[in-house]
TrEMBL record:
Pathway where it operates: Amino-acid degradation; L-phenylalanine degradation; acetoacetate and fumarate from L-phenylalanine: step 6/6
Lineage, broadest ranks: Bacteria, Pseudomonadati, Pseudomonadota, Alphaproteobacteria, Rhodobacterales
Binding site for substrate: 127, 141, 238, 242, 348
Binding sites annotated in the UniProt record for Mg(2+): 231, 251, 255
Residue span(s) of domain Fumarylacetoacetase-like C-terminal: 123-392
Annotated GO biological process: homogentisate catabolic process; L-phenylalanine catabolic process; L-tyrosine catabolic process
Cofactor: Mg(2+); Ca(2+)
Protein name from the UniProt record: fumarylacetoacetase
Amino acid sequence: MSKLKKSWVDSANSAETPFPLNNLPYGVFSVDDEPRCGVAIGDMILDMQAAEEAGLIEISDEPVFDVPFWNELMELGPDAWAALRTRLEQLLREGSSERATVEPLLVKQADADLHMPFLVSEYTDFYAGRQHAANMGAILRGSPDLPANWLHIPIGYNGRASSVVISGTPIHRPNGQRKAPDAEMPGFGPSMRLDIELEMGAIVGKASDFGQPITVDEADDMIFGYVLLNDWSARDIQGWEYQPLGPFQGKAFGTSISPWIVTAAALEDFRAPTPEREKELLPYLEGSKDGLYDIDLQVLMQPEGAAKASVIGETNYTRMYYSAAEQLCHHAIGGCGMNVGDLLGSGTISGPTKSEYGSLMEMSWAGREPFTLDTGESRTFIEDGDTLTLRGAAKGDGFQIGFGDCVGKILPAVTWPT
């Protein structure tokens, strides 16, 4: 395993920072002016527009960082991605001869507001965690048996790109139709079973052509980076609407992502294999690389007024059954063109024990088993005022690769009609 790369930015050399020189994640920030692209290093942010204007960054004949999103870099392709990473390491590594020129371009993270790091073209969410799928089957159908197709294909649905928001954006409890099992007719009102789903999000940085499939290895090369992703879910709305076409309003009201894009290159040393296949996959889903990453994940909950947040779940990205590359390959296999800025949600990441479950639906077993937070409050689903946080890091020798927290606070439902 690789070791910590030393930087002249002192805060980047701490084992506690999520943003060492090994990471260099991409985000968008502002300090009393227009948002602009930045790279996190320790507790600082390198202003990429200023670095480009100063001639420190030259990866294209045209400006790349004069816009507040990273799609322009994605469009340049993997060679440009690699070139930028190499250049950033040169500028920020310990002993860099260019420190005096770079240092004035750093901004304190504590002084900055963070914004959406990229323009989301499309959003697709998968159902690719085996333990979660088995748990949901046991809860909803009384059996952990998987759907007949589950061990053969990554199951997914097309979500709403317009509802993807940056960490810290409050989420209103959604209104919708819901029907109790013993009720003759559905009713309308705020969701009473509001939930989270702990996921990773893969960002497509290279497009594929309409009508042309891609291999798993090609898909792997197309992935620009990863974020933490919270697929907020209204279980009662979802349960009434999802047959026969799947999730709709129960999922469309909000999806939160962490603020920093951790590049695939930064995670390369943390690759991990997908689990042993119970059913042999068809040849088109075979790839030559390990497709998952060893990333520790946490879910925290903090009721309004509570003194601290409680860790309610801990698991690892290696619990997934299908990799992002396999999901992307299957997404395009029928000729669906993939776009720069497409976002793929992994599906809920749950492990085999209750402490590793990635949704409240599982943690409370559909509300039948309330759990108690460290501060004494009891929960089955999310209540108004609750703040949910996803946290994740790949841990190396003396350093960690972090994403920044993915945070969302639940506000009351909007009064209907307004």
